[in-house]
Write a structure and sequence with these properties.
Layout (H helix, E strand, L loop, with lengths): L3 H19 L3 E5 L21 E8 L5 E9 L7 E2 L2 E2 L11 E4 L57 H4 L53 H4 L3 E12 L4 E12 L6 E8 L15 E2 L5 E3 L6 E8 L14 E9 L18 E6 L22
Antiparallel strand pairs: 1-7, 2-3, 3-6, 4-5, 7-8, 8-12, 9-10, 9-11, 9-13, 13-14
Length: 372
């Protein structure tokens, strides 16, 4: 039988937990603009000549990371090598080849640089690292160290070893199945189909995508804030066991698809380490869609995101956040992209480009109470 005393104690417990939630530690961050996700390739955007447009971290000649830099990095940059082959176990083993630093001040002509996607392919071949990015023939080396984002992309021969995709202006990136703008790309060749070969001569195509190129200046106008608030206080262990991530975005592309992902401590192990983890979704679904003004608000609640160094799950601690634009307008379930970073997935914000390796001074624990 439930006594009045039990009821009062239970109510007081609920009140105490509510007070804890109201007083929970929180942190608000302005997300940092970036054109760089991983260090390799140096950027997820190219200029018209195929060089990397970098806003982020620069690996210098001293094998040090220089934060918050803007530079044009040569497509002929030599990546870390071992016996002449790409080896990305040490991401800082080779410096970026800087062509020149960029001026991002208002009125600078560098803000007018037209952004291009990275080229791709093939997925397999006689080279180190992951899929060939940039594609074979565009550069001497493969500058992508991540293995194919979807190993089942081409289950049948010969596409697995032959498919390539050229670099294209970001606003004309291929969208699978979109044919009414006459910019569709043939799967076999990976190149745009000549619009003069189809349709009615003299009748303009109905276009659903933007007509004007996307410039570096427009890209850097994007704004985002993130508020992290600890949640699910567990009285049994006197600790918070979760956190809420509240995002507020403005000045993104209108009616566009973006995704949110995290870097964990295990993401910084050598790629040959079996415990290595790529960036992965903060939550499911990992994507959001902007409104007609390029605005969006997104919220996730995550269990135990910040284990401390002594926690058995220490390697899963979230160290940073990234937000990327999906130029293919496709959600690939839990994967961040189908082909590779810079090909159809393009970074917008990266909390790590100021070389902050742990952006939240919080600690969470695994819950033991049923009251969390």
């Amino acid at each position: 039988m439930v006594t009045q005393r039990t009821t009062i104690v239970g109510e007081l417990g609920r009140i105490a937990r509510a007070v804890r939630e109201l007083q929970a530690p929180s942190l608000t961050l302005n997300l940092l603009n970036a054109t760089q996700g991983p260090f390799w390739p140096p950027s997820e955007y190219l200029d018209r000549d195929g060089n990397f447009v970098v806003v982020g971290l620069i690996v210098d000649v001293n094998r040090s990371l220089v934060p918050l830099q803007a530079a044009l990095v040569s497509k002929d940059t030599i990546p870390p090598l071992q016996n002449g082959k790409e080896n990305f176990d040490d991401l800082y083993a080779a410096p970026f080849k800087i062509l020149r630093y960029l001026d991002l001040s208002p009125g600078s002509k560098d803000l007018d640089i037209e952004l291009y996607t990275l080229s791709y392919g093939p997925r397999t071949g006689d080279f180190g690292g992951g899929p060939r990015i940039p594609k074979a023939g565009d550069t001497k080396y493969n500058l992508s160290y991540i293995n194919a984002l979807n190993p089942h992309l081409f289950p049948l021969e010969p596409f697995d070893t032959t498919y390539t995709r050229p670099s294209v202006s970001l606003h004309q990136a291929p969208i699978w199945g979109l044919e009414n703008d006459r910019l569709r790309h043939g799967l076999e060749a990976g190149v745009a189909i000549d619009p003069r070969s189809e349709g009615v001569p003299g009748v303009p195509a109905f276009r659903v995508r933007r007509r004007k190129p996307i410039t570096l200046g427009e890209w850097l106008q994007a704004r985002g804030t993130l508020k992290i608030t600890l949640t699910r206080y567990d009285e049994a262990i006197d600790a918070y066991t979760g956190a809420r991530f509240d995002f507020d975005f403005t000045s993104l592309l209108p009616h566009a698809i973006y995704l949110i992902f995290v870097f964990r401590r295990l993401s910084f192990l050598p790629i040959s380490d079996p415990r290595f983890r790529m960036g992965e979704p903060l939550g499911i679904p990992e994507f959001f869609v902007t409104n007609g003004k390029g605005e969006a608000r997104v919220s996730y609640e995550v269990s135990h995101p910040f284990p401390d160094a002594n926690d058995p799950q220490a390697g899963l601690r979230i160290l940073g956040i990234g937000v990327s634009y999906k130029s293919d307008y496709q959600n690939w379930s839990g994967r961040l992209g189908l082909l590779g970073f810079g090909v159809s997935t393009h970074i917008v914000f990266n909390t790590m480009v100021d070389n902050t390796l742990d952006f939240a001074p919080f600690t969470t624990k695994v819950p033991v109470s049923c009251n969390t």
